[in-house]
Queue: 2 jobs
Job 1
Amino acid sequence: MRQTVLYIIIYIAVMLPLIASGQKGDGMHRYNTHELTIGETNFVDTIPIVFAGNQVYIPVYINGERHLFNLDTGSSQGVAYIGTNTGYSAPLGNINSRDANGLTDTIPIVEYPELRLGTPSGLSLRGYKASLLPRHGHHFIYDGIIGFDLFNKGLQAKIDVKRKRLILTDRKNYFNDEPGFEIKYKLQRWTPYMSIRTFLTHDEPTLFDTGATNFFVMNKAHFDIERKKDPRVPALVEETTYGQNVLGSYGAEKRGLIFFLKFPSLPWGNFTFTNVHSFTTQGDSKFGASILSYGTFVINPKRKRIKFWSYTGGNNLEVNNHVDDVSYMEQDAKTVVASIRHTSEYYKDGFREGDVVVSVDNKPIGTLDEFNAIKFEKGKSYKFILLDTRGFNKEITVNIPKND
């Protein structure tokens, strides 16, 4: 059962656009990329990566021990998880951090020891700062996050998940001859935002966010404005429902109307993605890491450009992606149905927003981590016991489609 909408996104934008506020002496840490030191000059380094669950992971060696770090371009800087043996320092101060839902909190900043990327003798990063956050169980695959500050330092990169490699270089013109279609970006809160023509007359500010898992999501407030202005926009709506689609570090987005959308075309510069399924969110519009499955990306921070080249070549590509029918969140240490599509088999079988997952195949379920630990297999059936909002239990057999 796929739940990419919700639980891998939990830190999608924790991700930490910095808000430099307050005065000197207020205990707030003011991070800048000059504090990060690259251990080489005039280099080209090819780093092996792991691409799993629509996320990019970089092997990182700390004191000779291997860890996996998530590469998250939607995060302005790194993240360290409390309790991991990555050797991070005592807190250096605090920053104001904003999560996926626009909620803010003050959190501590720490510094990693020297990081080696890819191999024990790979590219060295020294002085790398990170926000210190609790580690959720479903993040067991990785021990930290590397954010967009790696590129803001001046490094160019090519991400190629098909060949499982990340190429980093400080050479100014190294990727100039790479084929592809470029989009210019602007830094907002130290992360890359592009202008995407989602409708005929609307340019949408869109974050390039490899920490998110979906292909594309759109800010609901902006969509509401456009659907009232342009009579052609409502034709993009496949379905509407109410719910809460995204959890952030500091709480869930407010319950509201969710639009499930289908864009006949979505541009990336002069390239066109066709038949893109999407949904609205109360956070920023963004391209997520699913887009990496379709081609290579070159990040050029000197020119503030991101270049895409399809694995199949040409100037257009059909996506026809899947958007999850049901998403879950945690409330009071219980797993709750956060949103559900009314046209889905789950809804027809009896799933409703607000239902609490009591058990799966007679295994009691409490937290979202416990639910996510279940490895649902395609083509198999599972018995759910759900507690509805009236306080009654219901038993539902869920058949996981082979193509889900």
Job 2
Amino acid sequence: MKGRYTGPRMMGLFLGIVGLMLLTVAACSEEPTATPVPTNTPAPTPTEAMMEPTPTEEAMESMEPKEPVKVYTSNWTSVELNTRIPAYIIEHGYGYPVEYIPGTTTTMIATFPQGEMDVNMELWRQNILDWYVEQTEAGTIIDLAGTADSLPNGSKGQILEQSAQGFYVPQYVIDENPGLQSVSDLPEYWELFEDPEDPGKGVMINCILGWKCQRLNRAKWHAYGLFDTYNVAEPGSAGALDAAIKGAYTAGDPVLAYYWEPTTIVNELDLYRLEEPEWTQECQDTLNEATAEGVQPPFDTATEACAYQVWDVHSAVHRNLQERAPEVTEFLANVFIGALNVGTLEIWKDENDAEWRDVAIYYLKNNRDVWTSWITDDNADEIIASVDAALANE
């Protein structure tokens, strides 16, 4: 048998044959012959390779490099942190390499169903509802919270609490102009938000280029009839959007901008969300049709507009990940940091001029009681120990 040492057995058989031959010769001889005394020859020492057991098939599979987990990321704070923090655990606890796939909503909806990414930790499904329904019904995309409209905060698979979106102004603007309560009031107050590049109109700072809300807000602006009195400025990143709002707030100036909540910037700057007509499915269908893929700006076919639907935000995976790494999928469903905690981390990042990875490490080191509760595997102690060891070296 391959790998089995047979040296002593063969030596014994050889000596036995020699002894039998000598006995036969002695029996046939007229003079007795002394039987030779065999010399004790030490058996060869087995090599180290011979002493090691053959690895089992299961052990061999565990030694093979794991396929990377590809995680979608984009240019806003919450998705970066809701991605980087669990990704550190996936890499150092579960042993999967992590690849970050940057993009926008437009690129995500094209590549996620194709398996070019495995994870989207912030699926803002209310903004891409037709796509979401199509992909979840086909089973291509797995919503880790299920497809219910809204869940209690902190539910499994939920990554952000119920989220509102809309058009915000600082509360001090409302205090000084109590007649400004709704988007329908904006034409009367355009001079408050005068565009420095076009003094005859006001300016609204829109959602980030490439996000679905950028297109929806433009369609809303047409339906509300606001392009007659306002221009739309579109920042290229969440950082640019934040800077525009914070800059105006610091100077005590009026500013009108799209944003969402719960977020630190809305709370800390005491921003007021202007009223819009109540959301209805019919209204949403009109907006979706006006901003469908392939339709280009100005999106002026939108005849009706309304507020964004208030929903929570879920995490999602491609079905391939659920099949090949169910333990990672289960872990991701347990991850919940919370919007306001993410906002606090954003402040720490700015104050310490830190990278996203640094913020993830900071969170993990200071919130061990939280992230260890996300790990529910049978070998949870081993996974946690691996993460702890990695953090100790940071």
